Prior knowledge:
Mean pLDDT: 91
Number of helices: 9
Shape: elongated
Largest sheet: 6 strands, mixed
Order of helices and strands: HEHEEHEHEEEHEHEHEEHH
Helix content: 25-40%
CATH architecture of the largest domain: 3-Layer(aba) Sandwich
Number of domains: 2
Radius of gyration: 21 Å
CATH superfamily of the largest domain: Periplasmic binding protein-like II
Structural class: alpha/beta
Bound molecules: 1-O-pyrophosphono-5-O-phosphono-alpha-D-ribofuranose
Strand order of the largest sheet: 2-3-1-4-11-5
Amino acid sequence: xxxxxxxxxxxxxxxxxxxxxxxxxxxxxxxxxxxxxxxxxxxxxxxxxxxxxxxxxxxxxxxxxxxxxxxxxxxxxxxxxxxxxxxxxxxxxxxxxxxxxxxxxxxxxxxxxxxxxxxxxxxxxxxxxxxxxxxxxxxxxxxxxxxxxxxxxxxxxxxxxxxxxxxxxxxxxxxxxxxxxxxxxxxxxxxxxxxxxxxxxxxxxxxxxxxxxxxxxxxxxxxxxx
Length: 226
Ligand code: PRP
């Protein structure tokens, strides 16, 4: 009798435990929520990244969403404040955070490029003289130029990087290109690609083991939903 009761209690327990997922605000946000909905998680409709509420649960209790600035998503996941996150691969690479990256989601595709003013495009990247490179991605920029033996002075910026050559702040930029419109409108052309990016699912190492069933359910659904 006791065994039967126990068995029923086990069956009655939810198939998946609640998972906390940090979602990057900005360009990725609405597509990330749409993807979660399309694979069966009932994310409330009308939720935007301008919401003042920064923590939202799905009505079935399967997901708790944290609305997070994109560069902070890997931090939430590495520390385990979120079991998983949806963010750009470029942001994960730049963060240097120790997280698993099990699923490429196939949206928000873009390229991290070296770009120069049109007038400089025909010249090779210089060797010898220290050139100034403005970027939101100093870690990847340093690695790119070091690998080529080029000495550069990296100027970290937090936005509107395309302005830097126009304003005389830098010779080159390293920045993300999606449609290419921002580069074109500021008289810049890409001369090399540093890395390709797209939205990815990242997972905390401990959650991957301790909450394996719920994490694998999320991974499986997102893989099938690509
Ligand atoms: C990103 C990126 C480029 C722009 C590229 O900036 O840094 O500036 O988008 O997109 P495009 O190729 O489609 O024109 P974001 O919009 O995130 O703003 P920010 O420059 O202020 O960071």
